[in-house]
Write a structure and sequence with these properties.
The protein is an alpha/beta fold and about 180 residues long. The chain has five helices and seven strands, in the order H-E-H-E-H-E-H-E-H-E-E-E.
């Protein structure tokens, strides 16, 4: 696992032992960022279900202003903190060990909005995608023109969301990347 582009291009990141955390492969990560086009300068990012934090770190390497990392597992939080320390991005980051719904609620309470929200929950919790996207729209957490990115197994499909337009859908082996844009 490495940073694909930006100021830390090529930097190796810590990754988990075992299979509890399922990091996005480098080739998929690279393609996701190609689909998003950028530029990412000044972007505010939420890496929900962050795992190792490498998606948010990729955004920061490409110029994002700040990133919130959220995961509820202690091993993930340790990996995220270690990777932020190694990359020097602690000052641009906030790390939250809590459930995704509490993290979204906190963002709403603090009136934080995001340009990019990456959603990649454990695949056994398909309902988290719909719940998170609906909550984000109902509470205005996505900036105008902002994007939500779902990384999901190829067996999933998603219905339309009132506040989002599906702009891209791309299959990579057994995974599909869904990119929705704010239509507010």
């Amino acid at each position: 696992m490495r940073v694909i582009a930006g100021e830390l291009k090529g930097r190796r990141l810590k990754h988990p032992k075992g299979d509890r955390i399922r990091p996005t492969e480098d080739r998929i990560k690279e393609n996701v960022f190609n689909l998003l086009f950028g530029p990412f300068d000044g972007a505010k990012v939420l890496d929900l279900f962050a795992g190792t934090g490498h998606i948010g770190i990729e955004f920061l390497s490409r110029g994002a202003e700040m990133c919130w990392f959220c995961d509820n597992h202690p091993q993930s939080i340790r990996l995220i903190r270690d990777n932020l320390r190694e990359t020097g991005y602690n000052g641009k980051s906030q790390v939250f060990q809590m459930s995704y719904d509490l993290c979204l609620k906190r963002a709403a309470e603090e009136e934080i909005t995001f340009d990019y929200i990456y959603i990649d929950p454990p695949y056994k919790h398909r309902e988290f995608y719909d719940r998170a996207a609906t909550w984000i729209g109902e509470h205005g957490l996505l900036d105008t023109g902002g994007r939500i990115i779902f990384e999901a197994p190829d067996t999933y499909s998603f219905s339309a969301f009132d506040h989002l337009i599906l702009t891209r859908k791309k299959t990579y082996g057994k995974k599909i990347i869904w990119i929705y844009e704010s239509c507010d």
